[in-house]
Amino acid sequence: MTSPPRFPPLPSTVSVHAREALQNFAPASCPDDLAIHRAMCARVQRELGATQLARHGVRMEERTVGTVPTRVFSPPADGRREDRVLLNLHGGGFIVDAGSITENAPIAGYAGITVVAARYRLAPENPYPAAVDDAEAVYRALLNQYEPRQIGLYGTSAGACLSAQLLVRLRDTGAPLPGVFGFFSGTADLSRSGDSESFFRPQEELTSAPFPQYAGAAERLSPQVSPIFSDLRGLPPTLCIAGTRDFMLSQTALFHRALQRAGVDAQLLVFEAMPHAHWIFLDLPESDEAFRAMASFFSNHLS
After folding, report:
1. Could you count the other beta carbons within 10 Å of the beta carbon of residue 172?
2. How many domains does the chain have?
3. Residue 153 belongs to what domain range?
4. I need a labelling partner for 24 at 20 to 30 A (CA). Which of 61, 92, 151, 230 fits?
5. CATH code, 107
């Protein structure tokens, strides 16, 4: 087995809290036992998620939206914008729920916007296109309550990929697109790995194309599977976020460039020395800054 990569010390350009928390950080391989992996992620969601809910005064409810189980995050009534909503598709490699609480409680609080987190079906039990089907069902249910320009869509890691897949499907079927898009530390290309993965991911994980349990037998070069090969013109304003030690930095930057070439209003925010999707599992000043940037972008672009 290849040893995890060794990184240089954290620079002084990050917060003291980040230097302390990330001093010995190295990307670890996930447990081989999927049940154990899912239990670990669920514990993080409960524990860190509870802290975030309390900190931001956000209330969470379990609901079914468009036949799909969801978690709905309601910000405090004072300052809540009832004329808009955000749809989140959580990260976790399509096989675990690594963010249905931690990705959303801070954004709901900072933006003052209700967030609906779709708890889509997971691989390997449910490979592509099950997750896209679930995401579409929730989005179309929201269209019964909101105008498209009042809906924001975002996801981290696998959720970013799924969000891009949903946008391509919506456009291909003639459905109206949401008013704003957040593509956070993800990939829009399931056919190949990016350069940063060779630096920041254990080498044994690079033996196959990304997300093999999710992609299954799907044609990876299809624009519906790898949206970077789609005609991206007309997609909503997009915020892309990654970190300089994020194994998805390359893929996030590649998708950002593709969006810009297509004339999309796309911004790229890169955090110094931060690992993959740092905001969903690390309680750092840099995490709070990421959440504030996301919330501000959504608020500014939804009407």
Report:
1. 12
2. 1
3. 48-301
4. 92
5. 3.40.50.1820
Q: What pLDDT does 210 receive?
A: 85
pLDDT of residue 2: 46
**Total-model pTM:** 0.95
In three state form, how does the secondary structure of the chain look?
CCCCCCCCCCCCCCCHHHHHHCCCCCCCCCCCCHHHHHHHHHHHHHHHHHHHHHHHCCEEEEEEECCEEEEEEECCCCCCEEEEEEEEECCCCCCCCCCCCCCCHHHHHHHCEEEEEECCCCCCCCCCCHHHHHHHHHHHHHHCCCCHHHEEEEEECHHHHHHHHHHHHHHHCCCCCCCEEEEECCCCCCCCCCHHHHHHCCHHHHCCCCCHHHHCCCCCCCCCCCHHHCCCCCCCCEEEEEEEECCCHHHHHHHHHHHHHCCCCEEEEEEEEEECCHHHCCCCHHHHHHHHHHHHHHHHHCC
Is 43 contained in some domain?
no
Residue 180 pLDDT: 98
What residues are paired with 63 via a beta bridge? Answer: 70
1-28 per-position pLDDT tens digit: 444 455 688 999 999 999 999 987 766 5
